[in-house]
Amino acid sequence: MTASINDVARAAGVSASTVSRALRGRAGVSEEVRERITEVAVRLGYTASRSASSLASGRTYTIGVLVPYVGRWFFGTVLDAAEEVFSAAGYDVLLYNLGSPDIRKRFFTRLPVRKRVDAVLTLLIPEEEESVALRSLGVPLATTVGGARPGFTVVGIDDRAGAESAVRHLVNLGHRRVGMISGASGPLHWTTPVERRTAYLDVLADAGIEHDPALEADGDYTVEGGERAMTELLAAARPPTAVFAQSDEMAMGALRALRRHRLRVPDDVSVVGFDDHELSDVVGLTTVAQPVAEQGAQAARLLLRQLDEPGAEPPAEQVRMPIRLVLRESTAPPRPLGPQ
User: Fold this and answer.
1) Closest to 8 measured CA to CA, from 35, 46, 63, 34
2) Nearby residues of 22 by Cβ (< 8 Å), 6 or more positions away
3) pLDDT class for 161, splitting at 50, 70, 90?
4) What is the distance, to the nearest Å, from the Cα of residue 225 to the centroid of all Cα atoms in its chain?
5) Which residues are paired to 242 by β-bridges?
6) What would you report as the CA-atom Rg of the chain, rounded to the nearest whole angstrom?
7) Helices 16-23 and 5-12: angle between axes, nearest 10 degrees
8) CA distance 265 to 259
9) Dihedral Cα 154, 296, 309, 2, nearest 10 deg
10) What is the DSSP letter of 252?
11) In this structure, what is the dihedral angle of CA atoms 102, 103, 104, 109, given to the nearest 10 degrees?
12) Integer distance in angstroms from the first to the last C-alpha of the chain?
């Protein structure tokens, strides 16, 4: 039998009205209680009835989600968490994969989401004309990438601060030949690689370390790309003794390349990543942890709150999530006699 709102309330130990407020992202419910209710609703297979609500409100009870890559770990994790929140509140997700420039151009020219969705969550960074097009929909807009922009609620992290902590950790260990594996060929208009590279250059400058362009390589934000990039860095005239990879997936590729070249981590080369991927602990990777799933869930909750409380004060344009450096086995001081 289909679970009811009362079933969820009993299992979660709260009232039915609290379940309703929690699943629709309304205020007055603590995050701890909201998470417990969402978990119970998913476990019991409960979704709010949409037929009566749709007739009364004129809503579609559908959320449009725009992504540059469905198969990439970061985007998939954000999407899964957001969809779980939407589903528990009785909303469907209409997914648009806009990785191809042609598909992306066609989407923003036609705007097929018009009158089909109640809100839009975008996991890509729209350029100005695309932002104008999305704002013309007249629905709440949220994103988990990039900086603040008018009309959007942005839930994300401080990319520059995170990258600074990673590179500074390597410098503080004594490394002077610090390489970087970036994602310069990432999604269109993506600011993350730029912010993290700026942090890398700033930390080197603060430490009095001259930047060597030969110590940078593009890893395309994939494991395979990270392996290629690490191989390229090892071919430099003076290879790095430490490497900052802008994502854990690229860092894992770097670890594979180092192993293939019979180099030990961290004895020969230290490696630090970014994300705290679910496999990072398994491979002992030092990394900058960010709450990837929670960014998607929080963005979804903020959209639902705007839908259910249209007269309320809008959320902050930018919501910053916490980050922290997680020290594991992949970083150590350079060998005393190693190349510096």
Assistant:
1) 46
2) 14, 29, 33, 34, 37, 38
3) very high
4) 19
5) 178, 270
6) 22
7) 100
8) 8
9) 170
10) H
11) 90
12) 67
**Beta pairing partners, 320:** 156
Asked whether 117 and 94 are in contact (CB, 8 A), the reply is yes
What does 97-132 look like in DSSP terms, one character per residue? E--SHHHHHHHHHH-TTTTT-SEEEESS---HHHHH
Q: Do residues 128 and 136 make contact, with C-beta atoms less than 8 angstroms apart?
A: no
Q: Looking at residue 52, what is its pLDDT?
A: 45
Query: What tokens does 232 get?
Result: 């390229």
CB-based contact 62:86 (threshold 8 Å):
no
CA pair distance 192, 190, nearest whole angstrom: 6
- Tokens 């970061």 belong to residue: 74
Pairing of strands 216-218, 286-289: unpaired
Q: For residue 290, what are the contacts with CB-CB under 8 A and spacing of at least 6?
A: 157, 162, 274, 275, 276, 321, 323
DSSP β-ladder status, 286-289 and 324-326: antiparallel
Cα dihedral angle (234, 236, 237, 240), rounded to 10 degrees?
-60
Joined together, the tokens standing for residue 85 give 């929140």
CA 196 to chain centre: 14
Can you tell me the distance from the alpha carbon of 130 to that of 141, in angstroms, rounded to the nearest whole number?
Answer: 12
Structure tokens of 197? 């590279």
Q: Which residues pair with 319 in a beta bridge?
A: 155
**What digits encode the pLDDT tens for the residues 19-72?**
887 887 666 788 888 888 888 888 888 876 654 444 445 678 999 999 988 888
